[in-house]
Structure formats: C-alpha cells, structure tokens
Structure of Alpha-amylase/pullulanase:
Amino acid sequence: MFTVPRLNSPRRTGDRTKPARATLAAAGALVLLAASALPAQAALPTPAALPTQAALPTQAQTQAAVTSNTPGPPSDADKGAHSLRTPVADENFYFVMADRFSNGDTGNDQGGLGPDPMVSGFDPTRKGFYNGGDLNGLLDKIDYIQGLGTTAIWLTPSFKNKAVQTEDNSAGYHGYWVTDFTQIDPHLGTNAELKALIDEAHARGMKVYFDIITNHTADVIGYKEGARTGYVSKDKEPYRTASGAAFDDRDFAGRADFPKLDAGTSFPYTPVLDAAEQNLKVPAWLNDPTLYHNRGDTTFAGENSLYGDFFGLDDLFTEHPTVVAGMTDIYEAWIRDFGVDGFRIDTMKHVNDEFWQQFGPDVLAYAREHGKDEFFMFGEVFDTSKSNTSQFTTRNRMQAVLDFPFQDAARNFASKSEDAKQLETFFVADDWYTDADSNVYQLPTFLGNHDMGRIGSFIGTDNPGADDAERVARDELAHELMYFSRGNPVVYYGDEQGFTGNGGDQDARQTLFASKVSDYLDDDLLGTDATHATDNFNTGHPLYAKIRELAQLTKEHPALRDGAHQHRYASDGPGIYAFSRTDAKDQREYVVALNNTEEPQTAAVPTYIPKRNYSLLYGDAVQNSKTSADGTLTVTVPPLSAVVYQSSGRIPREKTAPAVALQPPVSGAATATSAGDNGRLQVTADVGGNSFYEVTFEARTPGGTWERVGTDDTAPYRVFHDVSGLNPGTEVEYRAVVLNNAGRTSVSASRSAVVPDPVLTIQQPAEGSTVQANVEVVATADPEKASHVVRFERSIADGPWTAIGTEDDSSPAYTVADDLAARNLADGTKIRYRARLEGSTVVSNVRTVVVGAAPQPDSVTVAGSLNSEMGCPDDWQPACAAAFMAFDPADRLWKLTADLPAGQYEFKAAINGSWDENYGQDGAPNGSNIVLNHDGGPVTFRYGHTTHVITAG
C-alpha cells in the first residue's frame, strides 16, 4: 500500500460487538504469567508505585536490577522443548497483481462501466489504470506459476474498488480503494471465478492467500471544511462524545462501552457524503461516517500515522468495537465461503495495537474451527527495525510480518556488495521474534515488491556500470540468500522474467502479457533480449530456471527451508557469509556459503562435526571436502554465487547435557544497535558446549508457576520477553533449560529482574532550534500505555522548572503549546523543556532551544530523483538553480512549486547548494530520503528552517 519507507540517504547516481480483551503482552508466557497481577478483562494496568530513582534518567534506569537464585522446583518444562516450527515454515510464495499478470477474459476489461477510461478505469496504455489482467488469466497460467516451485499464490487485494478517483487521476487496479468487501472487483472477474481458482490451486496442493485491508476504504468521505485537508492532532482537537464531552479514544479501544459519536460534533473535521455515494460501501456499516477517524491527511509520522487519511482514503476508526467486529465478520466470510488459506494484511503498523490483539486471535480461531489448521496471517510493517516489526508478532499476537529488514539486508549484501558482517549482525537479531507461539522461521522474506520496486531495478541502480551477466548473477545471489536462509521466500511476479523498472509503485507493476504502456516498453530486462512489447511467460528464462532449481533443492532437503539457521562465518568487508541449517530431528548439517564479490573467495567455516565428509549439493565447487579436527570446513566460493554442502551423517549425540547459565536480564532499549524496546527484557543464556542445542526460557512472577517465554535453537541463545503489560517495579524470575541432541537437559540457576520504568522522550522542538511565539512541545513514552498522563515543564535562562499548561493523557503523542509571546523574552534567551510521567519519578530528556528568529540559509534545494524533471542536468543536484526554493517572509517558509510527471520520487532538503548540510524524513540531519508518490501535475514543496522539515503536497 501507500506508505513512506525508510530509504537510504541520499542516492546520488448490523454489527456485533465483543468485550474488550486484556491489552497484555504477547500470547503465551506473559498472559499466563501475569494472571495473578492483572484483572482478566482490564485495559493496560495503571503503573504501580515505582522504586525510588533519580529525577533524571540514568544508565541504571535502562537496565533491570538482577539477583541470582537457586534453580526452581522441577516441572514438565525441565524436559526441554524444541524450537517452534509452525506448518507455515516452508512455503514458497508467488506474489501477483491480477490486473498485471494475464488477461484471460477481455470481456471484463471495463468492469461493466463502459468505454470511458475516467469512468471504467480501463486504459491499457497507462500504468496507473486497469490494464486487463484477471483471475481467469491466473487460472489459465497456473502451470507456469506452479512450475516455479510455488506452494502459495498471494493475490493483491481483489475486492471491488472505486474504479477511478479523479483527484488522483488514476484507477483502482491495485485493489487498495475498496468499496465492497464482499465481492471480487468486476475488472478481475467474479466470486465464482475466484472459487474456481482456489479449488484448482487446492487440487494441485497449492494455497491461495488474500491481501486484505483493515485500515481504510476508498476515498468517499469528504469534509465540510475542504477536501484532503491537513491532519489535526488529538491534542489540538480531541474526540468528543455525541453530547460534546472530550475523551481519549485510546482509553476505550475495542471496548463495548466506547462512547457514542455524532458526525456533527465528534470530529475535528465534519464528514460529508455525496448524495450518490451515501450507500456506496458494502457491508452497510461502512457507510457510517462516525466509524472513521476524520482528522485529515497523514504525513506518515507520529500520531497521524495511526489516525490520518492516506491521500484522502477514508481511515477507519479501528479503535471502535463496531469496526473490529465488522472487519472480523468480513474476513471470516472469505474463509468460510471460499476456503482462502491465509491473509497478508496491508498497512498493519498504521492500525492500533488493540485491534490486532483481538482481530488476529479471533480470525485464527475461526479458521481452525473451519478446518484450516494451517491458516496463516502476516502483516505489512514497512520498517527495517526488528525491535519494532517484531512487536506485531509478540505484543500484538499476530503470526508473522513481512520481513522488510531482510529485504534491506539482502539488497545490501547481494546488490551493493557491502560488508558480510552486516548479515551476521542482521541474523543474530532474529531473537526479537522468539516467543511462545511464533518465531522468525514463520516470516515471509522478499527482495522487492509493488510499492518499493523490484530487485532487478535495485541492482541496476546500485551497479550502473554492470553488464547483463553481472546483473543476472547478483539477482541470482539475492534469490540464493532468500531461499537458503530462514523464512518463507516470496517471488514478486515478473522477477522470474528479469523485470526491472524505473522505481517503485506504478513503475514496478508491469504486465507479464504484452504491454502498451510506453514507460514499460523501454525497460531493460535482465537475462533476455525480450521487451514488454511481447508476452513474458518464458520458462526457459535463466531467472525462472534458477528459482525453480532453488525451490526443488529446498523441497528435497527440507532443512534448508526450516532447519535451525546458525551463523558460522563472515568476512571483514565484502566476501563470504556462511551459515548452517540443521533439522532438530534429522541432525544432518548443511553448510551454506555466499560470496558477494567479483572474485573467488575462500573461508574456513566452523561446523558441528569434526573429521567428517561433506558433499557438494549446490554450486560450482569441489565435490567433496572434509572438516578438520576442530570441525572447520574449508570452502571456496566462485564470484557472486553460493555453494551448499551436506554432512555425510548426523551430528554425534552428546552423552551429557551441557551446563547453562543466565546472564543478567537487561532492558530491550539498552541492547539494540539502532532502535530498542523498553517494554521487553533481553534474557540471554550461556551454554557450555559446542553442539546442536535448543534453549527454552521460562518466567514467573512471585508465587506464580513457570511459563514458557520461547525456545531458541541458534547461538547466542536469548529471548526478548514482552513485559509491557506489567507494572514498573514488578519482579520477574527467569530460568533456562537446555536440550541437547540426545534428548538430555540441564536447568540454569534462576535470575530475577525488575520491570523497568517507562522512558519519556521529547520529540519536539529540535535540540538547539530557534523558537518564537507559540512552541509545540511533544513527548512520547516507551512502552506506550493508554493510562499514561504526562506533564510538561520549562526552565527560562537556567531558572527554576515551572509547569506548562495542563497535563496530557492523549496518547500516543503527548503535547503542550507554550505561548511565549506575552513574556517579551529577548532574542538569545535559552529555554529548556522536559516532561514528567504523573504518579512516578520518571522524567524525560531535556531539549534546549533559543528565542529568536531562525537565521535563514543562502539557499534551500529540493534535491532528489526529481531534479531532471525540474530541468536540472541530472538527479540529486543540490546546486541546481532550477530546484532552488524561494523564502516567504510572511510565514518564514521556503517554497517551490514544480510540475512533475506521474511517478515515485525521492528527495531531501539540501542547504546552501551542497550535501554538507541536508535534512530528510521528519527533519532528521542526513536522514532518510522522503518518498513522493505523485499522480502528475503541480506539487508544492515547503521547508521550515526551524524544524528542518520538508514536505510535498
């Protein structure tokens, strides 16, 4: 769907309601562990009295206090446990956009709406309109799909869409503008044709997954105050009940006593419907405008990423129990009536936690009640931080998320030839996903998609001077990494034919049938002389053949799909990354080594087995090799390729279980390299041996029973236990049980940790910025709870701290406006801001600003991939005068309006004509590129030098 990714910077070349669920941590361990401390149907608990601490955060506040204890009494868990493998740990997905695959029935091209493209949405010459593919085309070409080794077809949203949104000058071919959630879009076929496709797939042993949406519908609702208006925060305009009383929706999320709302009084904008569209949506409850957030367009950051409209798309009030129940009913019907095997869930991170904590378990239980024991759901969380993406599988009780961190790591390794140790760091962090009912082995992995672009496009961008042979080799290397490492590989349709494209979104949505789109016809495909002017269903294409080979090999050797993934070796700099895969039952070790350089590389790779023969299964290398006395296997890997070796027998059984000891548990916020999670405790076990082990972590509160947190089968052995549902200061006791490959166990001594305080962080204003008149001060809390109440304080010229305004309990962003106008402060006066968590001693960091007008730079450039369209000689040109903004002294903003063709662009603000000072997403210095999905026409850029934020709209 449409979202703002975190990219590199800069690139230069009748509705039921249900009772609320306890908003606890992940399913399994903590829910049971905390049963004695929390009421069964309560919302998140109010923090208990906290231990005495310093007024300001210290290092001690980010680390749990620890004591060492003797082992607890024996339990069934002392027998040890195997690392979890769900039925969906060996799936091969084929991700396909029906409109862009094959046109099996030209009679449905116009969707029954007539020949006018601005009504029907059908225009095969334009990349933003329906091109003609359909479900019958998928059925006709199912041999082609299955021939890749596909076990599951994943369809982009196929529900009936608003055919054209005139504001966007494009059509709903992609499926994300839904008006009717109960029928297939007429451009794609009928419900009966979907059933025929699913039945045929099932007859062949394949599954069919639906891409579903819970966050929004088509843009039908307008506002009395104006169309597609800017976002209004909850702090400026809170929600109000039908009688006009202000309230925070987070206090009632998912609860049956959610306040009654009124379209005229409850929202910052007044929702209105065109007379012709008042009953457009199906089911009928979707036509109630009070079931939407009605706060204006999102900028994809902070609070508005949860509450704002995506480019006008109507953002559902997912905190409302009617929406939770309604969405659950919709998708249960597709399971019951059509036998859908699973869901990929769009825009998951833009929906509140409480929704997922109810929707996920309910839908999964329903599927299993209807014979779908392998039903599987995974969400789109467009982020590369595992501590964040994993929250949806632990805290929010969902089964899996799309592995965006893997996509980033795979591109860096295979396409950019970056340091092999980055892959080591990447895979070691997999423990963020381990809990009692899920782990990293369930995650779907991918190399590119319909939003961000194709792996073939990335390879071309990263290697502009490479010939076709090198680009194909890098593409194959990326697929080898995806197929041989943990997770479920996803092939994006057309990648098997070497599709490339000029970017993401519409530029990554080419047809496999002959295209008439001019922007597609000039694409340079990998591994072929073919173009998009002809059909591209070539089963002899080198990439099709490679993917088929990888799928077949992993089918013959299942450990390469779901065996334990153990890091083994990483070069300093570009070179070899090696790992082993081992099935816990078979105990045969497979060694995988990949080389991301253009020269052969040799490495000594540690294994579990000394003096053992290993035979080559895959790649161009010596056929047989033997490990040394210390278990080292010497491998030589050709340029830009991979090799796989298999041991001649199982790992020797250990006669005794090794000793195991716990390290002091620490806060998850103190352990991550980029972003952490203060709502989790990292618990690590040291194991005194060198063989295949599985370590189970257990936890309990005082007086409770031992409950499983999760099992790890890869060193270093650890879990990140979600304790966000417990009060700060609560004691949690941990122990570890190690299971060796002979079925013997040993138990560690236990350690006790204290749940840390929340961490408050001032987000605005920026440190060192200059301020005038009204200053907006914003803070966030980690972990976030609806019960938090925050008060703000200021200090003028190092004077005493004084309170600002009233406290704020409106999560997830706590805000106060500080009016400095009446104080007549001299320019240069220093002001400090901080926040306090009411009822505790928790105090935020301090932000210091200076009173006065922000000194303006000599120039500001909109520098990015759009510069050539602006008249610059090339893209990413900070000194190009055609991309200079003009300063408007009235509102002290820099502005530039440019007429751009449709497409996806990336840009930043460059200061004084160079990259020495530049600002990206959210005003961050040297920050991530900002993404603009543009439908063509004028666009205005605005930049404020006080906040350093640059926007386009």
